[in-house]
């Protein structure tokens, strides 16, 4: 697969400086690119690499083009956002190579007669689609996918093998769900019924399950990582707004709402009924307890724990970096004695400053 | 689906004050309920909402009924535990609407001839049940479930799609396992065999797998969340006692024992051979290292790490709340200097108090 | 199944002291073994148990044999590494009892005609193998496994139910992947394209997906836990070197490289492009941020967060042990005031020592 620079510039709205007839066969980083590859400059610290690159052309902004043009040998592909255009061209090349499977239903799939499948959808082997479910145009369901009763998968969505969508859940257009993702499992709620509180051991107790009658609603362009779980709501729905990106092994509990464009890294856990704003960034393995509200553009550092609402945009943290264990342990022990250290300082102050 | 208050009161052992012939069509919170819905009061801080609610009736205790009765317009449904009764009535409504699938084996399921399935069990498409496995009455196995050789699923259990039960594991009655849960995978154990310790790089080393010949035994009324994993024991079994509730993405390692009624929130990890008592509450993303013993009624805060046995009931924590990053980092750095701060305090004390 | 001590000694290269004709039917710990079982001594603190054990024989080193021989009643099976030999004999017994499934393809499996399966491979029900995939001799794929286009599974590997191997990924020989493991899902990468940075709210933003054209390459003798996820690389591959052992619910992001013999406990998350050396030990629920380099023989404590490269071998930590909540909270609050405590110490020093 090969395109000229001019062809790419026309398709991706850029301006070419230099030889527009150069053939581009793929993409690569500045320092690894060969003479038939396209590279990009997004970070000024790599500006000198533009001078030495062997790439056929470099995606660049007007500003950096003006600075480096006279010193470089490559052609330039000038766009407002080189990294985003790089990503779009990389998608274009990938699609040219990796054709999606043909439309139609694999003979081994089990589709309830009342389900409505768009003719251009592609349904893989052993996939199960239950009663009254809806699958949109050009949607792609790989092998072993499960779509429960009355669930909806929007157009051009791609569900990888072993994805489970429980009954009544809704996925928008162009949603990607990676293998093993679970959408719509029961929220975790139980009413205790252990008898007389004064004699709690007197009878066998019981947790009464709170039925989870809400669903999960997922907006357009959401991506959901492998083995990530999103629980259905108790009475209202759990909502993932458009263009939210969720990494692998993330847990989102019942009745959460995640605002548009928010990005959630791997291993994050978000407890029930928490609302997260738009354009937030939640670092890997962070935790957020239930019933909180995070405003727009809140960022949380990896492995931090959010225990209070954070209405204001900003960067929040509560994580410690690892250091040699003996140093850590010596100091960690003192952490439990901060109150006595403070008391000793107070007493010193009383003595010294009253003197 | 609709019931009168009197009908519900008879079925769920309550007393009605007010018009017992009112029709109830569903349940809702106090502030959102309409005139054909039933609400509940479990927390006294919502007492004033009972006065203003539009609900047909409110589930309430005798005590709160006595306090609020004269001021309210709704009927009352008086029970000892309004929240638990609310949960039971919600289940009743949900079951009336969402009929379970019919008994029988889907033609696409693969059942080994030596497996014993109760006639009232329901087995979904593409489910696999291996030799000598047993499935109890009214058990429901959804699509793509895997039951290994000699495993047992108790009566009225419900296994959602893509649940894997390894060979020889036992699930009690009314167990719920959500999509992707894995029960009985190998415990994580290896014997190092890297040759001469003084020349560890001299030969290619090897981890020798410890075969995991125990199983997992799960009691009645246990619920297991989506993509949660419970490893089989090394020689003895991993045991989950009755009515334990486990959320999504939890890891329980080999040879653990989890006591009855204990609740484990999402993303928790429990290392091997740890025993947890009854009625414990393990907060989200907490970690518990191996070979510990936690007593009954131990609660662990979210994201905390338990490194020592905790025989005494109580609430334990080691987690920090996130604060603005610059504040956090300024102080986190000092954490590594607590020992020098203490030394400086000591020296001050020596000077000041010896004077 | 039963073997004499002499038979086992011949197969596993040991020397017998005592009656070599004793029959061994199984293995057990020193304190639980019966007269037809074999136990082992790996830790000198159990030396006295060797005197009292009822085991037929004890695996032991020459050194400990010399110390304890005269006091004990059992036979001895003398080897350089008793624990590793114990593990190997336990495997031998397990294999004698639990025969692997016969070679061949289950009639319900779906195999693309262009896939190449070794005749001795065993393929379970509903397993899907896509075009040009390769499955080696004696490989065992259980039910519901998915092998994507052009992926390779090495000889004698064992993939448990619901394992997903994405297109183009490679597994070496004797790889074990437990149920629900996902190998080769997309790395988590997006280019922001939200328009004018000065007016970020003016238009609907967009995250442009970075296509992930690398794969995952897994070496020989790797074990991967249940529901663990390993992402494919962006342009280059994610690499897991030989004999790496990975527990359940671990997330390994795109373009990581994990060095040979490294062990990763459950619930660990490793962010993108991080390289980990050989013989490392990563404790449960530890986190490692992206683009770091950890040297050989680095150990990280459970729940710690690595934020900087750690080139030097050693043990690193940043985790606090849980203590009673009231004690914890009283001191945790002071953590946020360490800078003012230090300032107070400084002022005291200025006053006291300048006096």
Automatic annotation (TrEMBL), chains A, B, C:
EC identifiers of the protein: 2.3.1.191
Source organism, top-level taxon: Bacteria
Residue ranges occupied by any UDP-3-O-[3-hydroxymyristoyl] glucosamine N-acyltransferase non-repeat region domain in the UniProt entry: 22-91
GO terms of molecular function: N-acyltransferase activity; UDP-3-O-[(3R)-3-hydroxyacyl]-glucosamine N-acyltransferase activity
GO cellular component entries: membrane
Keywords: Acyltransferase, Lipid A biosynthesis, Lipid biosynthesis, Lipid metabolism, Repeat, Transferase
Signal peptide: none
Enzymatic reactions: a UDP-3-O-[(3R)-3-hydroxyacyl]-alpha-D-glucosamine + a (3R)-hydroxyacyl-[ACP] = a UDP-2-N,3-O-bis[(3R)-3-hydroxyacyl]-alpha-D-glucosamine + holo-[ACP] + H(+)
Family: Belongs to the transferase hexapeptide repeat family. LpxD subfamily.
Role according to the record: Catalyzes the N-acylation of UDP-3-O-acylglucosamine using 3-hydroxyacyl-ACP as the acyl donor. Is involved in the biosynthesis of lipid A, a phosphorylated glycolipid that anchors the lipopolysaccharide to the outer membrane of the cell.
Subunit structure: Homotrimer.
Name of the protein: UDP-3-O-acylglucosamine N-acyltransferase
Name of encoding gene: lpxD
């Amino acid at each position: 697969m090969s395109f000229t620079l001019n062809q790419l510039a026309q398709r991706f709205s850029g301006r070419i400086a230099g030889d527009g007839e150069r053939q581009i066969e793929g993409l690569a980083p500045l320092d690894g690119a060969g003479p038939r590859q396209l590279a990009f400059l997004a970070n000024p610290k790599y500006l000198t690499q533009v001078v030495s690159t062997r790439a056929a052309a470099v995606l660049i902004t007007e500003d950096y083009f003006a600075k480096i043009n006279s010193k470089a040998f490559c052609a330039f592909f000038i766009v407002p956002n080189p990294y985003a255009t790089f990503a779009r061209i990389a998608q274009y090349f990938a699609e040219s190579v990796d054709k999606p499977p043909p439309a139609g239903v694999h003979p081994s799939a089990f589709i309830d007669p009342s389900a409505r499948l768009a003719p251009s959808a592609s349904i893989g082997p052993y996939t199960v689609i239950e009663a009254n479910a809806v699958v949109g145009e050009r949607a792609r369901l790989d092998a072993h996918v499960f779509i429960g009763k009355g669930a909806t998968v929007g157009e051009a969505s791609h569900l990888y093998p072993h994805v489970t969508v429980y009954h009544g859940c809704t996925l928008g257009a162009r949603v990607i769900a990676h293998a093993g993702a679970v959408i719509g499992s029961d929220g975790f709620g139980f009413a205790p019924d252990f008898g007389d509180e004064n004699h709690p051991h007197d009878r066998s107790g019981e947790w009464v399950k709170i039925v989870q009658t809400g669903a999960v609603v997922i907006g357009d362009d959401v991506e959901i990582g492998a083995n990530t779980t999103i629980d259905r709501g108790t009475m209202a729905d759990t909502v993932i707004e458009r263009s939210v990106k969720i990494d692998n092994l993330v847990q989102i509990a019942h009745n959460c709402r995640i605002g548009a464009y928010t990005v959630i890294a791997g291993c994050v856990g978000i407890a029930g009924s928490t609302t997260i704003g738009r354009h937030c960034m939640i670092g890997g393995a962070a935790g957020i307890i239930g019933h909180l509200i995070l405003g727009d553009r809140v960022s949380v550092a990896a492995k931090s724990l959010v225990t209070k609402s954070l209405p204001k945009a900003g960067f929040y943290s509560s994580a410690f970096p690892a250091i040699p264990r003996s140093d850590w342990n010596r100091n960690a022990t003192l952490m439990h004695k901060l109150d006595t250290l403070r008391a000793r300082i107070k007493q010193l102050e009383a003595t010294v400053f009253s003197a």
